[in-house]
Amino acid sequence: MSNKILIIADHLDGSLNESTARAVACAQQMSPTGIDVLVLAEDGASVAAEAAQIEGVSRVLQADNAANAHPMAALLTPQIVAAAQQGEYSHVLGPNTTFGKDLMPRVAAKLGVAMVTDIMSVHSAHEFDRPIYAGNAVITVAAPTDQVLVASVRCASYPAAPGGNSAEIETLSLDAELPGHTRFVNLEQASSDRPDLQTAPKVISGGRGVGSEENFKVIYDLADKIGAAVGASRAAVDAGYVPNDMQVGQTGKIISPELYMCFGISGAIQHLAGIKDAQTIVAINKDEEAPIFEVADIGLVGDLFKIIPELEEKIG
C-alpha cells in the first residue's frame, strides 16, 4: 500500500488553524507518495486557498456542504470516511487539538480500525513515538500496514510547514449520509484580542497561587504588556478563576511556546505534560520545593504579587 496521506483541515471562521501545517510537517516524515488536505466547510474557498500554500501539500480537496456551516464531529465523520475510501488513502491524519480529539476517534471507529493518538515522532510510515503516563514516558508503537492508519498529531512536537506552495485545489463531491441525531444549537466561547494559546510564541500562566478570579488581572496585564497568550493550571480552572479553555496540561492544551512563564503553579505532572516542549520555562512560586522548579530553566522563589510589578517596571 502506497503512503497516500489525507489530512483533515482544522479551521474556524474562514481561517486555517496552524495545527494543519504542523500535521503536514509530521506527514512529510512518513515518506508519502502524496499529501492531500481535505477542507470540509459550507464555503471553504478561503480555507482551501490557505491550505494550498502549505509546503508539501499535493492537492487540496474542497468539499462544500451547508451542513458544515457549524462543524461537528458527528457530521464531519461520514464525509471524511467517504473521502478516505474514495481516494484510497493509506493514512488519515488530524491534529491532536480539541477539534481533532473529538473527530479522529470517530473516523477510526467508522473505518473499523484502531487509531494512534498523539504522534510526537515518526520512525517510518507505520511506526511512531507517542507519550504515555502524562508525558513521563514515551512508547514506540507499530501500526498494521494492511489497513488504513488513522492518527492524531501532537502539534507541539512539530513546527508548522512553511508556506510558498501553490497546490491544486479540487472540488470534491462526497456521497455520505449525515446523521440527524446531532444538531448545532449555539456556540459560546471566550473572545480575546490576545494570541491563540496553542500557537502563541509567549505564554503566561497562573495557578492556584494567584488566589482569585479578581487577582488574575495581574496575569492578564503582564501578558498584554509583552504580547503573550494567557493560560492556567487545572487547579486555577477548577477554582473558577478562569474558563476551562485556558487550561494548560495533559487534559487541557499541549503547548510549545518559545517562552513560558508561570506564576503560582506548583507543577503537577499533568501540567508539566502540557509544557514540556516549551523552549524556555520561567517559574515563580513562593514554595522553593515546588516541582515546577525541577523543569524550569529560570526559577524565582517569591511572592508573585511583588514580583510581577517589578517585572512590569523593568519592561517599562
TrEMBL record:
InterPro entries: DHS-like_NAD/FAD-binding_dom, ETF_a/b_N, ETF_a/FixB, ETF_alpha_N, ETF_asu_C, Rossmann-like_a/b/a_fold. Keywords: Electron transport, FAD, Flavoprotein, Transport. Pfam families: ETF (PF01012), ETF_alpha (PF00766). Binds 1 FAD per dimer. The keyword Cell inner membrane does not apply. CDD domains: ETF_alpha. Its cofactor is FAD. GO terms for molecular function: electron transfer activity; flavin adenine dinucleotide binding. It comes from the Bacteria. SUPFAM superfamilies: Adenine nucleotide alpha hydrolases-like, DHS-like NAD/FAD-binding domain. Residues 5-188 form the Electron transfer flavoprotein alpha/beta-subunit N-terminal domain. GO terms for biological process: fatty acid beta-oxidation using acyl-CoA dehydrogenase. FAD binds at residues 208, 233-234, 247-251, 264-271, 285. The electron transfer flavoprotein serves as a specific electron acceptor for other dehydrogenases. It transfers the electrons to the main respiratory chain via ETF-ubiquinone oxidoreductase (ETF dehydrogenase). Belongs to the ETF alpha-subunit/FixB family. This is Electron transfer flavoprotein subunit alpha. It comes from Salinisphaera orenii MK-B5.
